[in-house]
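Quick question: what would this complex look like in 3D?
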Amino acid sequence: MSINNYLYLSAILFTIGAVGVVVRRNAIVVFMCVELMLNAANLTLVTFSRINGTLDGQVVAFFTMVVAACEVVVGLAIIVTIYRSRRSASIDDASLLKR
Amino acid sequence: MINFVTPTLDYALLAPILIVLAGALVGVLVEAFAPRNSRAASQLFITLATLVLSLASLIRVRGKSSTAAAMDSVSFDGAGMLLQASILIIAIIAVFLLADQENFTALAAALPGSDEERTSLQQDLKVTEVYPLTLFAVAGMLLFPLATDLITLFVALEMLSLPLYLLAGLSRRRRLMSQEAALKYFLLGAFASAFFLMGVAYLYGYSASTTFAGIHAAVIGGAGNDIYLLLGIAFISVGLLFKVGAVPFHAWSPDVYQGAPTAVTAFMAAATKVAAFGAMLRIFYVSFAEALWQWRPALIAIALVTMVFGSLVAIAQRDVKRMLAYSSIAHAGFLLSGVIALNKSGLDASIFYLFAYGVATVGAFGVVTLVRDSAGEVTDLNRWSGLGKRSPWVATAFSGFLLAFAGIPLTSGFIGKFSIFSAAYESGSTAILITGVLSSAIAAFFYIRVIVLMFFKDPVEDGTSVVIPSIYTQITIIVSAVVTFALGIYPTPLINFIQSTASFLR
């Protein structure tokens, strides 16, 4: 099996994530789509690491996981706060700032 | 098997960043252990001391510039040090605005409108977490323009962004709007950093290296697959253009500028722009310079659209914070012409422009915090009319900052715009020059309209008034105003200094 298939797979995952961010309305689901995009990038990195024969890509993937974890902490804090004040996690309801 | 090499870190050169990080950690400990009523004063002291110490250590190592540290993942060159100094100075000025705790909610966890919130307000609680969060963001910003490795660049990007997402949600009044701003900033920011990371992955695939030097070598060698290079540049640019707020990645900025506490907006608008443009200048000048035909046409198009869009939409704004947000979008377009110029004068001009614009921005938002009624800040422009008659000093200061944004001579903005457009012209981008000057003219219209509104209209009688500025806010506004006019009247020393020091280590 060609190793390029992993690149195609990660591109597809990334696209699914990006489309999800644009079309989904629940803040948690949007956030999960962002995580999917980050993991697609991780898969790309690891695949390139294999193709190039250097370890740097795998190191980046580890850093990404840590950064993604930090992002979850901050993101969920914000989403939970807004859910408590509005009783809804829909990003369409949050529209006070549209002039 | 690869032999493990012990990494060497040059602590003296990393000191400015490490000091800020240490100060932030001390701030976290103070949050945990100090008694509640002594926190505000001690946090302010720690934050200011940290920033000043960091600036001092930066000045101490300036002679050692043009060396790489931390295994080539950061490089200390003239441009990097100037950008770091700008960020620190802007942060020091902006911290005085944070000290005015009227801006921040008493208890972030309390529901808006709940009993808990009322009790916390009565008890006069203070959210002193803003200081450590600000320091963490400053540390990320200091690292961002210095990073010469994609890993460091990505970590620094997140380090500066995450605290800012939280800070945006801490407003005292209109808390739902503030939380909404935090949510939008966070979701769109995370979306943009996912693109950024995908760009990192493709650039790594192209060059088999994560360092800027390695990418540069691969671009010159031309052995890699050009599709990966194109995808990499495109995706990384999405992440960076989002941070600077360029069209079409600007959607967050008006909402976040309006919803966030004004003190946070001041800091974020000024310092993030310096850091993000610093990183952008470095990666385009160092890594992608030889591949300019791949990215320059696209970036020129984005710069043109950004300038025109920002200036035109700002005219229609009725809210002063939104107006300043669209004006910052227009300025992002002007600053992009420094990246496009891709020559030494473009670099010098961008650094000067970033510093001048950052200081004026902090000052302008400092004035916005002063105009209030009983329910909090008044940002509706109609209610600003006649402000100059009641509070001539505050209105004069605000007019000064607006004139600097508009680029009127004798303010720092004029020197900045003049040098950045002439750099773009030098590099052959006549379209940028013409569009830039035209959209500056459009922008001048709405800046001057606000000045006319403040000085030549009758005051409205609806309780809008300018509060007596606290000593902290006074410091911010006076220092920003002095810098803005000093750089406009006598810019030669700073320009010469930038010209002699600014360069990127390749």
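Answer marked as accepted. Chain A has a mean pLDDT of 91.
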